[in-house]
Amino acid sequence: MLISEIFHSIQGEGELAGVPSVFVRTSGCNLRCAWCDTPYASWRPEGTVRTVDEILAEVARHPARHVVLTGGEPMVAPGISELAAGLRTLGYHVTVETAATVAPGGIACDLASLSPKLLNSAPDPLEHAAWRRKHETLRWQPEVVRAWLDAYPCQLKFVVAQPADVEEVKGMLAQLQREIPRHRVLLMPEGTTAAGLRERAPWVSERCRQEGFRYAPRLQIELYGNRRGT
After folding, report:
1. 220: which DSSP letter?
2. Domain contains 151
3. In this structure, what CATH number is given to the domain that contains residue 128?
4. Tally of domains in the chain
5. Max Cα distance, the chain (Å)
6. Domain annotation covers residue 230
7. Residue 111 belongs to what domain range?
8. Does residue 229 lie in a domain region?
9. Are 108 and 88 a contacting pair, CB within 8 Å?
10. Can you give the pTM of this predicted structure?
């Protein structure tokens, strides 16, 4: 399995924000988001090939009992189900952070953090024409999202860049045809700097107040900046 990095930090996003966690970042992604903040694991996959046993041993070096499988897109990583099962056997709480374009397939998971991509995620049509077509075909898979919702505790996390994005979110939720508690829907301002996040925070938080959604900060940006290992 190609692993970009394994590190011990705090969860910066979602309902477990602030919880000490070990992050296992797989390398490789089937999407190409224009604003991706981990291009080294997505646009330019890099890392070290590790066995599941090696990864489990590295995780065990840290005191946290929460493990986050992230990427890139962890669900396209060969061996991800074996890794998740090994973590579950060792008693870890497992969060899977995924764009929800790949069905869960019974993976061991205590919290599915689903982040379907909006139109704002599409790469440049001229510079990345082939990837744009693939991205637009794959980014929103309602039947896959429903498979996750029906099998696991889930949170739905949407990256919003402008007010119109919230209307898109509401349309996507309607397509799912599921009763999803509003507090399980998180709106996260797009941005890779603390200043950029603060600029969008007022209107995003106000829309959350109006719609009943949860505002999702990015603690890792506020605390450490946009850098690896955080």
Report:
1. H
2. yes
3. 3.20.20.70
4. 1
5. 47
6. no
7. 2-224
8. no
9. yes
10. 0.95
